[in-house]
């Protein structure tokens, strides 16, 4: 464990020196504040780091992550992040960023009893219940799991539209653009879901 921690700190030291060499004012500019161009709601999975996959530099993406990228109307943490992003940072693009092979989605589908997380996964089970007929019609288990990942992202887009933050912002005339994305481990690509044409 100590070796792993040391690895991270050593990398940080080299990275900071390289950034300073490339641009002596890099950290000075960062310290003045942030001006991100998008808010991204992603999964906590360690394999889907948005900044790595999307190439976002420091200060470009305002990120919130939780298990299975859920927009819960009871999650004051995310709602506070959303309001800060929209009302303070002036962000107009909001991305729901799911991924195939999501452990939270699989756990919900398998109806596993894990513990405290079961309460959180109830959000995913609600998505399943809403789309049970469509999911039951998919014979292949992996394809069914992948479709649930997509349906979950699309449902979270719908949930975003129902938040008081989104509704009040649009009532004030603010234009908010919602994006439904799914990351694919098999090829490293992000799939854009056509959420406007899908009934969720």
Structure described in brief:
The protein is of the alpha/beta class and 200 residues long.
By CATH reckoning, the class of the largest domain would read: Alpha Beta
How much beta, percentage-wise? Answer: 15-25%
> Which residue ranges are poorly predicted, with pLDDT under 50 across at least 5 consecutive positions?
none
Radius of gyration: 19 Å
Largest sheet: 5 strands, mixed
CATH fold annotation of the largest domain:
Beta-carbonic Anhydrase, Chain A
Helix content: 40-55%
Task: Report the average pLDDT across residues.
Answer: 91
What string gives the helices and strands in order? HHEHEHEHHHHHEE
Number of strands: 5
Shape annotation: globular
Total number of distinct structural domains: 2
Corresponding CATH architecture of the largest domain: 3-Layer(aba) Sandwich
Please list the strands of the largest sheet in the order they lie side by side.
Answer: 2-1-3-4-5
Structural class by secondary-structure content:
alpha/beta
N- to C-terminal distance: 44 Å
CATH superfamily of the largest domain: Carbonic anhydrase
* SS element count, helices: 9
Structure description:
- The chain has 200 residues and is α/β, with parallel strands linked by helices.
- It has two domains: 1-33, no CATH class; 34-197, 3-Layer(aba) Sandwich (Beta-carbonic Anhydrase, Chain A), CATH 3.40.1050.
- Helices cover 51% and strands 15% of the residues.
- It is built from nine helices and five strands.
- The protein has helices at 2-22, 26-31, 50-54, 76-88, 103-110, 117-130, 132-136, 141-162, 164-171; strands at residues 38-43, 61-66, 93-99, 177-183, 190-193.
- Strand 1, helix 3 (50-54) and strand 2 form a beta-alpha-beta unit.
- It is globular, with a radius of gyration of 19 Å.
- The mean pLDDT is 91.
């Amino acid at each position: 464990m100590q070796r792993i921690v040391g690895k991270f700190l050593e990398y940080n030291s080299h990275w900071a020196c390289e950034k300073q060499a490339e641009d002596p004012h890099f950290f000075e500019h960062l310290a003045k504040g942030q001006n991100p161009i998008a808010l991204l709601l992603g999964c906590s999975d360690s394999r889907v780091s948005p900044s790595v996959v999307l190439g976002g530099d420091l200060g470009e993406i305002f990120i919130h992550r939780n298990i299975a990228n859920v927009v819960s109307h009871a999650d004051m943490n995310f709602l506070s992040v959303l309001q800060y992003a929209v009302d303070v940072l002036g962000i107009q693009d909001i991305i729901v960023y799911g991924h195939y092979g999501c452990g939270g989605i699989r756990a919900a589908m398998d109806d596993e009893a894990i513990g405290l997380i079961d309460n959180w996964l109830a959000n995913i089970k609600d998505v399943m219940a809403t789309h049970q007929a469509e999911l039951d019609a998919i014979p292949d288990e992996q394809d069914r799991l992948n479709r649930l990942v997509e349906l979950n992202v699309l449902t979270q887009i719908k949930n975003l539209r129902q938040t008081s933050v989104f509704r009040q912002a649009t009532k004030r005339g603010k234009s908010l653009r919602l994006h439904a994305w799914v990351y694919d481990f098999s090829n490293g690509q992000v799939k854009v879901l056509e959420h406007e044409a899908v009934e969720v």
